[in-house]
Specification:
heterodimer; A: 182 residues; mainly alpha; B: alpha/beta; 7-stranded mixed sheet; 27 helices; 25% helix; globular
């Protein structure tokens, strides 16, 4: 039987060329994925912000702590970003000539909230509460990474459910679905 | 090729295709505050501000829940004397009015071609003053006509009219209780509606007064009714010509011939033992009837009339109330007068009928006031009319028509309606949630109105408009501050202030004259009925009220008329057929529904089904005559489908309502049904959430349904989907007509079954039983096989067949604590898991467990009669545990072995 099949032309097409085409498609697919992943890693997880605020400078040089600006982290599900006034209070005078500060004061003078781009996004069905995690003694850096070393904030953890559940299991935190699925 | 090769190729191909997919999380913005919020305001944590609901004249106190500077839910103010924490369906829905897309957004001035052009407030004020000046120069009448106004606004309106020399007409309300007031004025010298101490009486007879539907203050009466039925000897006879929730709740409901109330009351006057004698000249005007005559004239059974006589005679604290359907007839005033006489005679006045605490509607006129105004308009004698909040003038359309031609007309309104249509200038009113003010529903209660959001559009509150027009150099807020001087500021935080009222002892006056009875109505009549969902038609624009079914008929969208089986037979009508109702003064075309609850050939039309109609007025009492005679019905040959959500009218053999005939013997609390499952019972950790619904207290008002809609972001699916039977309400009120005379209501939602049939059939494990006894639904995991809904014996699960658009502006009403479910996802009652989560979070802060009463789901929170109780069944001291073990407690369809977590209580028939 093998001899009979090896001879026909259709056989060559089906058995050899189509698989080659498909493997070629797979390779292209992998390239596309790799490209997208590279782009995502470099930009989406580290989006460009309207003002080039540097955490590094403010934490290392100025000596600010997380909770001084992100005031509601231990009181509310939302940690929030600081009100524009908090930035403006210092920067009325401090470094007032720098271009980014001018951008900041522009927003303040126009009474417009700064449209920061959200870096850490959770899915629509997720309920996450900062308050409970801070009160459980988890350090900000554990989930947000070494923010004090970052110029532009980027997401370092996957923030996927598996990652959350792993820690919950370790620390005996509730793993009931309704804890986080809203 | 060989099978193996085929699979190999397919595997590679699909792998290649799938690897190219990626999850897209579009750039979301994170907006900070400009200025940090005040101390005590934490973003993400709700805060509450007290105000007053202005959706109807009852003016219940509300507690507005604010999240991220937007009101997201209204709840009753727990301390407010009127509602004590409850809020009716219309009050719950009134939040949507704030974001309604049809709201008037800026002042409009009618140009020469008849269209409205937007103008600035300055231009509007100028136009108004010009119109007024013009009218004055011509020596014509200038009038101000508003809906019921109380509190400081009333003082400002008086000042406005006085200073600008405008006649302040009596206020226009459809339900103005003119008959009751005129009767009380004649008999006691008090032109007021008294307070009825329903909770203090042991025998109550109500004639026509739909206490639990729309009569004066239904939320308040519902609460008092729930208090009343706790007494074992509470008896309530309700006499009405058509079916209402009030009739369904009463101990005994009797259906009378429309307009025959005076005959019943005359019989009662003559045959009950009067404690306070009535003067002979007054009593002589009351006709004498024998039992046979009374039964024939009223259409009531002899046992019912006898029962009423006996009950009233034997009562220690009797109470008789007439109103509603009994007032709005040609015999309306006579009915009210006979009622007042009976109230006096049986010693109710100054005890259960209290004139020390009367309805604050002294400025409200009656229907007699519209006629003269309309006549003057027709004759061109009126040069300037200013309307304010008279949206429900639709039923006086002939009067409106004659006003079309007269002078300069200004309307202050929130949404466009028939009145704004005919006006030259329209001034948009801010929503009560955007305004400062106060309201005084009853004498002695001052309720604050506080804004919680900046006006969304270029609108002003009525107070601000009047003070601008007056030229007062201050805002209405300052005007209020002047009027509130001397009051301790804490009253604003509490939401209300009670003021001592003068103790008034009513006495029978000399020279009280009895009216003459109008000719008895025999047939060919149609009753215009008040609407539970829209009051007098004013709440028509709120779509959630149309989405929620009318509890008596389960009809949702559209207007309809109810015809009795007799009337249907006469014309061979089938449901949905469009019939033209022609009265001597008006006509309307409506589809019909057959109603077994109507006797004779009575037909009823809800007041909100009329938009271009004229009603006649009963002169002496000043009431609109809702009972229309000589109405002819004509078939039009057209037919439409009316969305009726109810599947069946009776419970049959299903264990939905218990068989109370067994309750005479000591059967124990309920049957012990075998647990039909192969699965082990669940272990519960700390909590097992459960609910108890008292069916004796439940009136079917559907406030819980509205609260659930707003709290849980339930989408509105619309008429087309309802026609397919695809309702979306997580909680529904099921009316069962096992007794065709009185329906029983069963609020039905997900029973959170311990042996849930839905949990075992989900192919992706999107629904499971959590450790606190809840049947959890994980939205993002659901793939939409709908097997769970298929298996649910209570049919409590709802499927999102479409992505019902949640777009602005109404999307702003969303509760941020829970998600909006996308297409293809199953949803259902969660026992307000977001509230449970919030309470557990707070309890964890204090290192303790949640206390009983800390978690109140939206439905339980708003129920006017307190029928729903929620709590932890594992805690033996909790309210639910105790109630679940009480007599009359049972679970729906227990015979199926689902082990629901919701217990129902039914003790009385």
């Amino acid at each position: 039987m093998r001899e009979k099949r090896a001879a026909s032309k259709e056989f060559t097409v089906i058995k050899k060329i189509i698989p080659l085409l498909l493997i070629g498609l797979l390779f292209v697919g992998l390239l596309v994925v790799a490209g997208l992943a590279f782009q995502w890693y470099s930009t989406a997880r580290k989006p460009e912000q309207p003002i080039a605020f540097s955490h590094n400078r403010h934490i290392e040089k100025v000596g600010l702590k997380c909770e001084q600006c992100h005031v509601y982290a231990d009181r509310s599900p939302q940690a929030t970003v600081p009100a524009v006034k908090i930035c403006a209070d210092c920067h009325q005078k401090v470094a007032a000539d720098k271009p980014e500060i001018i951008k900041l004061m522009d927003y303040w003078n126009k009474k417009e909230p700064i449209p920061w781009v959200k870096v850490h996004n959770l899915q629509w069905h997720v309920y996450f509460t900062h308050k409970r995690h801070i009160k459980a003694g988890i350090d900000c850096a554990h989930c947000h990474g070494e923010v004090k070393a970052m110029d532009t904030v980027r997401q370092v953890r996957s923030l996927e459910m598996g990652w959350c559940v792993d820690c919950h299991r370790e620390k005996n935190a509730p793993t009931d679905c309704l804890t986080c699925h809203k | 090729m060989k099978r193996r090769d085929f699979f190999r190729v397919m595997g590679i191909a699909s792998g290649a295709a799938l690897s190219a997919c990626k999850v897209n999380n579009a750039d979301k913005k994170l907006l900070p505050y400009l200025v940090p919020p005040e101390e005590g305001i934490v973003p993400g944590i709700p805060r509450y501000v007290r105000s007053t609901c202005m959706e109807c004249p009852a003016h219940c106190g509300i507690n507005i829940k604010i999240r991220d500077d937007k009101p997201v839910k209204l709840e009753g103010n727990p301390d407010h004397p009127v509602n004590q924490g409850a809020l009716c369906m219309r009050g719950q829905a009134s939040l949507a009015r704030l974001y309604h897309p049809d709201r008037l957004k800026q002042p409009l001035l009618k140009s020469a071609d008849g269209t409205f052009k937007p103008v600035s407030w300055d231009q509007a004020v100028k136009a108004l003053h010009a119109g007024l000046k013009d009218s004055k120069s011509k020596g014509l009448r200038n009038v101000f006509l508003s809906g019921r106004t109380t509190g400081t606004l009333s003082s400002l309106a008086a000042e406005f009219c006085r200073d600008l020399e405008i006649e302040r007409l009596k206020e226009f309300e459809i339900f103005h209780h003119g008959a009751i007031k005129t009767a009380n004025k004649g008999l006691f010298g008090l032109d007021r509606v008294p307070y009825y101490h329903i909770d203090k009486c042991d025998v109550m007879v109500t004639v026509g007064a739909d206490l639990l539907d729309t009569f004066i203050s239904p939320v308040e009466w519902s609460r008092l009714y729930a208090e009343g039925i706790k007494k074992t000897n509470f008896q309530w006879y309700h006499v009405e010509p058509y079916l209402t929730l009030t009739g369904a709740a009463a101990s005994k409901r009797a259906v009378n011939i429309p307009g025959s109330e005076p005959y019943l009351l005359a019989f009662l006057l003559r045959h009950t033992t009067l404690q306070n004698p009535l003067p002979e000249p007054l009593l002589s005007g009351v006709p004498e009837y024998t039992m046979e005559q009374a039964a024939a004239l009223t259409g009531l059974a002899k046992e019912d009339i006898e029962g009423m006589v006996k009950a009233l005679d034997g009562a220690k604290q009797p109470l008789l109330i007439s109103g509603g359907a009994a007032s709005n007839t040609r015999n309306g005033l006579l009915t009210a007068q006979l009622t007042a006489m009976l109230q006096w005679g049986l010693g109710m006045v100054n005890s259960t009928v209290d004139f020390s605490h009367t309805l604050n509607d002294g400025t409200v006129g009656n229907a007699n006031d519209i006629g003269p105004l309309a006549d003057d308009c027709r004759d061109g004698k009126v040069g300037f009319i200013m309307f304010s909040r008279v949206a429900n003038m639709d039923i006086a359309s002939k009067a409106l028509e004659s006003m079309t031609k007269s002078g300069f007309k200004v309307a202050m309104a929130g949404m466009p309606d028939k009145v704004t249509e005919i006006c030259d200038l329209v001034l948009p009113l801010s929503n009560p949630l955007e305004s400062w003010g106060d309201a005084e529903p009853w004498e002695g209660i001052k309720s604050v109105v506080q804004p919680v959001i900046e006006p969304l559009h270029d609108t002003k509150s009525e107070g601000d408009i009047l003070s601008t027009l007056l030229g007062l150099q201050k805002s209405y807020r300052d005007y209020l501050a002047d009027h509130w001087e001397g009051m301790d500021e804490t009253w604003i935080d509490k939401g209300f202030k009670t003021i001592e009222t003068e103790k008034i002892t009513a006495r029978l006056t000399e020279g009280a004259v009895l009216g003459k009875p109008g000719k008895p109505v025999t047939n060919g009549y149609t009753y215009i009925t008040p609407s539970l969902r829209t009051f007098d038609g004013r709440s028509r624009g709120l779509s959630v009220l149309e989405e929620i079914p009318d509890p008596l008929t389960t009809v949702t969208y559209g207007k309809w008329a109810a015809v009795s089986l007799q009337a249907a037979k006469n014309l061979e009508l089938s449901p949905g057929e469009i019939v033209e109702f022609q009265s001597p003064v008006s006509k309307v075309k409506l589809p019909v529904l057959l109603s077994p609850a109507l006797r004779g050939d009575l037909t009823t039309i809800g007041i909100d089904a009329l938009t271009d109609y004229s009603l006649s007025v009963d002169g002496p009492g000043g009431e609109f005559v809702f009972l229309m005679e000589d109405v002819k019905l004509f078939k039009t040959g057209e037919k439409i489908k009316i969305p009726v959500l109810s599947g069946g009218q009776t419970t049959g053999k299903r264990g939905i309502l218990p068989h109370l005939e067994h309750n005479g013997h000591d059967h124990g609390p309920h049957h012990e049904y075998k647990r039909y499952t192969l699965y082990e019972p669940h272990d519960h950790k700390n909590y097992r959430w459960g609910m108890v619904i008292d069916l004796d207290a439940c009136t079917g008002c559907s406030a819980c349904v509205a609260a659930c809609y707003i709290e849980n972001n339930i989408p509105m699916v619309g008429k087309a989907e309802h026609l397919k039977g695809r309702e979306m309400a997580w909680l529904r009120i099921e009316p069962y007509f096992n007794d065709p005379n009185q329906p029983e209501f069963v609020p039905m939602m997900c029973q959170q079954c311990d042996c849930a049939p839905c949990e075992t059939v989900c192919p992706v494990y999107a629904t499971y039983h959590n450790e606190e006894g809840l049947n959890a639904q994980v939205y993002n995991r659901c793939v939409g096989t709908r097997y769970c809904s298929n298996n649910c014996p209570y049919k409590a699960r709802r499927f999102n067949w479409f992505d019902h658009s949640h777009s602005l502006p109404l999307y702003a009403v969303s509760n941020p604590d829970l998600s909006v479910r996308p297409k293809g996802v199953m949803e259902k009652c969660t026992f307000c898991i977001q509230r449970i989560r919030y309470a557990k979070d707070r309890a964890k802060d204090e290192m303790r467990l949640v206390k009983d009463g800390e978690v109140i789901p939206a439905c339980a929170q708003t129920c006017p009669s307190g029928a729903i109780t929620f709590g932890n069944l594992m805690d033996p001291d909790s309210e639910v545990s105790k109630l679940a073990k009480s007599t009359g407690a049972y679970r729906v369809q227990e015979e199926l072995g689902t082990e629901p977590a919701i217990y129902y209580i039914k003790r009385k028939k």
